[in-house]
């Protein structure tokens, strides 16, 4: 195992395979502790972690908070609404103010792509990117990769197909980078209006426009939500039509009985996925959520030197 030399986690692009493996091993060691507050580890005692979420979140925010608490850190949830940002203070000033109060790590989700890279230049605490616009969501890719790594033992040669709105998805971008680090094969499938142009050349993935072909090719389907909040109008004719062509329903098991299902959440049932598939024994969705806490414990402790 290598020594983890990073102070920040901004994107998967900055990590080596050895870095990711180190995070996986640490997360595995934390797994027995991540579901219960009975055993609080002391790894981050004396550290202060601030969560600043400028976009909605359930899983990512709560799991970062639980992860920090399980390791005995002090956790502060910064509320943008009602803060001095509303009085015209800049984000940078706000972050430097929090740092002056003793913040050791800032976990930030923000609609502006690249915001974590900008902040890193101006602060000395650790910055953790919890999703920046359409750009990166490194801890989601880590927990997705960890789920596959634990189940399959390795990712080399595994065929993972991302289904749906690839264009607006930071989950897709970070997943592609991580899967390539480990020699997995990546496919993308969705309507062409929701797939970046030249995706094959730029991202080195296989493009499918036919869902049945994608399912027959893949070992794992990672199903994504339609990100309406980032979409111009007219990219999808209707929800019903999207569901008819790209919805993951029980039909996928007729095409390939042993395909696995993932979803980062939140799910829009009846659009990209049906509940019977989400709850089927071939779904990793619950495990992904549990693994999210262990992965975030590992990231916090490696970055903060615990
Ligand atoms: C994703 C996100 O926020 O990018 N969700 C998550 O973090 N669990 C995907 C999404 O919002 O669809």
Give a structural overview.
Strand 6, helix 7 (199-203) and strand 7 form a beta-alpha-beta unit. The protein has 306 residues and is of the alpha/beta class. It is globular. It is 38% helix and 14% strand. The chain has helices at 17-30, 59-70, 91-100, 115-120, 138-152, 170-181, 199-203, 211-217, 239-246, 251-255, 275-278, 285-303; strands spanning 48-53, 74-78, 105-110, 126-132, 159-163, 185-189, 206-208, 220-223, 260-262. The strands form two sheets. It has a five-stranded parallel β-sheet, sandwiched between helices. A four-stranded parallel β-sheet has the order 2-1-3-4. Bound molecules: N-carbamoyl-L-aspartate. Residues 59-60, 131, 137, 140, 170-171, 225, 227, 264-265 line the site of N-carbamoyl-L-aspartate.
């Amino acid at each position: 195992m290598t020594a983890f030399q990073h102070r920040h986690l901004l994107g998967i692009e900055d990590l080596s395979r050895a870095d990711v493996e180190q995070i996986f091993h640490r997360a595995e060691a934390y797994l027995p502790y991540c579901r219960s507050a009975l055993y609080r580890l002391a790894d981050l005692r004396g550290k202060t972690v601030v969560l600043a979420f400028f976009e909605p979140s359930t899983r990512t925010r709560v799991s970062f908070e639980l992860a920090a608490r399980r390791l005995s850190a002090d956790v502060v949830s910064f509320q943008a609404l009602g803060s001095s940002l509303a009085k015209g203070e800049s984000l940078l000033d706000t972050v430097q103010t929090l740092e002056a109060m003793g913040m050791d790590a800032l976990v930030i989700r923000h609609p502006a792509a690249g915001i974590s890279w900008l902040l890193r230049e101006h602060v000395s605490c650790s910055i953790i990117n919890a999703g920046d616009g359409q750009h990166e969501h490194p801890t989601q890719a880590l927990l997705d990769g960890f789920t596959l790594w634990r189940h399959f033992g390795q990712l080399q040669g595994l065929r993972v197909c991302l289904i749906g709105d690839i264009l607006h998805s930071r989950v897709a971008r970070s997943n592609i980078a991580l899967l390539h680090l480990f020699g997995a094969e990546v496919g993308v499938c969705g309507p062409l209006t929701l797939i970046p142009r030249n995706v094959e050349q730029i991202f080195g993935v296989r493009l499918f426009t036919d869902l049945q072909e994608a399912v027959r090719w893949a070992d794992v389907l990672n199903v994504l939500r339609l990100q309406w909040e980032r979409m111009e109008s007219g990219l999808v004719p209707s929800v019903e039509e999207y569901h008819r062509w790209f919805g993951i329903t029980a039909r996928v098991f007729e095409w390939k009985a042993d395909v696995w299902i993932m979803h980062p959440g939140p799910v829009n049932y009846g659009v990209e996925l049906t509940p019977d598939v989400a709850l089927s024994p071939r779904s990793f969705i619950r495990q992904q959520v549990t693994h999210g806490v262990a992965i975030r414990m590992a990231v916090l402790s490696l970055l903060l030197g615990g």
